[in-house]
Amino acid sequence: MSLKNAALLALIGMILLTVLVAASFISTVLGVMRDVVPAVALLTSLVHVFTSLSVLVFFYVFHRAQSQ
């Protein structure tokens, strides 16, 4: 497996994980709005979404750099 293929595989996996984390974030926001979930959980979920998006951007840039 070449580095370019590994970067693509990591990018695809990170896209799927980011979609899952974003759905969880939306669920948490809706839970906070309905007073079902404590507001502290919103901060944790926000950190997870930010981290996931940051790693996704890193893998995207890394994959683009391997293509050149």
Report on the structure:
The structure is a single chain. This protein has about 70 residues and is mostly helical. It has helices at about 5-35, 40-65. The chain is elongated, with a radius of gyration of 15 Å. The protein starts with a helix and ends with a helix.
Report the sheet-strand fraction.
under 5%
Shape assignment: elongated
Q: Could you name the ranges where pLDDT drops below 50 across 5 or more consecutive residues?
A: none
Count of alpha and pi helical runs: 2
Task: Give the helix/strand class.
Answer: mainly alpha
Largest sheet: none
Listing every helix as H and every strand as E from the N terminus to the C terminus, the arrangement reads: HH
* Average pLDDT rating: 95
Helix fraction, binned, reads: over 70%
Oligomer: single chain
Our measurement of the CA-to-CA distance between the termini, rounded to an integer number of angstroms, reads: 17 Å
Number of strands: 0
Secondary structure elements and their pairing?
Elements lengths: L2 H31 L6 H28 L1
Helix pairs in contact: 1-2
Keywords:
87% helix
Quick summary:
This protein has two helices and no strands. Helices cover 87% and strands 0% of the residues. The longest helix has 31 residues, at 3-33.
